[in-house]
Amino acid sequence: xxxxxxxxxxxxxxxxxxxxxxxxxxxxxxxxxxxxxxxxxxxxxxxxxxxxxxxxxxxxxxxxxxxxxxxxxxxxxxxxxxxxxxxxxxxxxxxxxxxxxxxxxxxxxxxxxxxxxxxxxxxxxxxxxxxxxxxxxxxxxxxxxxxxxxxxxxxxxxxxxxxxxxxxxxxxxxxxxxxxxxxxxxxxxxxxxxxxxxxxxxxxxxxxxxxxxxxxxxxxxxxxxxxxxxxxxxxxxxxxxxxxxxxxx
Length: 249
Known about the structure:
By secondary structure, the protein is of the alpha/beta class. The chain contains ten helices and ten strands. It has helices at residues 43-49, 78-84, 99-109, 115-128, 132-135, 148-160, 178-191, 204-210, 228-233, 238-244, and strands spanning 3-14, 17-28, 32-36, 60-68, 71-72, 85-88, 166-170, 196-200, 213-218, 221-227. Strand 1 (3-14) and strand 2 (17-28) form a beta hairpin. The two termini are 35 Å apart.
């Protein structure tokens, strides 16, 4: 199975705090990989290393390698990297502009300005995010008027508009109601046919429902990583079992 992202002896420090310790993992293509573990264990920090979001934080030091299809991400232009590795955050963060301009924003930065081409990208991205029918008649209205679930799918569409290879999601359903969460889970299962998806989640049922692979983090270490079915039914580490069954801590 082809690995899209691979880390080799990845370490990260926030000042003197050693937040990630010797992380070695290979993320397979066209699958959903869930990152689980208690708060503060390094899941989101790890996710942010994959598109160099941690570069924006003062006093961060990183050792080791992150490879995207064999290429060291530190050797890439950061804008190119972030177009290849898109991110959707925990809280929906649409720009204070129209639905259309939210989606067209990234392609315009990449140099696409012809209206006909942008129209196609906007429609395709909104369709991929399963929200076209809900907003095709309000493309020129503010994205801030959408519901929370719609805004999150809009943010997914915005990430898809620059044709990424990998989609990172940082607890992107945690603030949503069950119906909206279910819609996004269905969407992710559809999107993995074309994209590699890596998601941080605190929801064990969600990981069990939709993830192909699961990685359990604890205190900055990768404790266990494998097929989701195996991790949830026959974990090899007692700490993984305690966390999944709610007996941890």
